[in-house]
Design a protein that fits this description.
single chain; 110 residues; alpha+beta; four-stranded antiparallel beta sheet; 6 strands; 26% helix
């Protein structure tokens, strides 16, 4: 997450990245998974490793203007940023890495 001006945003990659393991020869391969909350992904539940929203869902919400894409991911080295406060509540609740004081300011006040 980062600020774009004064707007708290989350990147497209953070929203859609799937940390669930890939099965290789009957074993779970966590090489593509990121370390979340300072622990190895194998200790986390399937729900915590799943993406916050899928790529088709992101595209549909952006096209219908249900989420505010404050910076489109066009151009060299640029990536899309989505305003967290405009996301539907079901997705805001899945963003669990936000410190508690941000949660109170941005989500409970809207």
């Amino acid at each position: 997450m980062e600020y774009y001006g004064k707007i708290l945003c989350i990147s497209y990659n953070d929203l859609t990245y799937d940390d669930r393991p890939v099965m290789v020869n009957g074993k779970a391969d966590y090489s593509r998974s990121r370390t979340l909350k300072g622990v190895h992904p194998s200790t986390l539940s399937e729900e915590e490793l799943a993406p916050i929203l899928s790529v088709p869902n992101y595209k549909k919400l952006a096209a219908k203007k249900e989420i505010n894409v404050v910076r489109p991911g066009k151009g060299l080295g640029s990536y899309a940023l989505v305003e967290i406060a405009t996301m539907p509540l079901r997705f805001q609740e899945r963003i669990t890495l936000i410190p508690q004081h941000y949660y109170k300011i941005f989500f409970l006040s809207t």
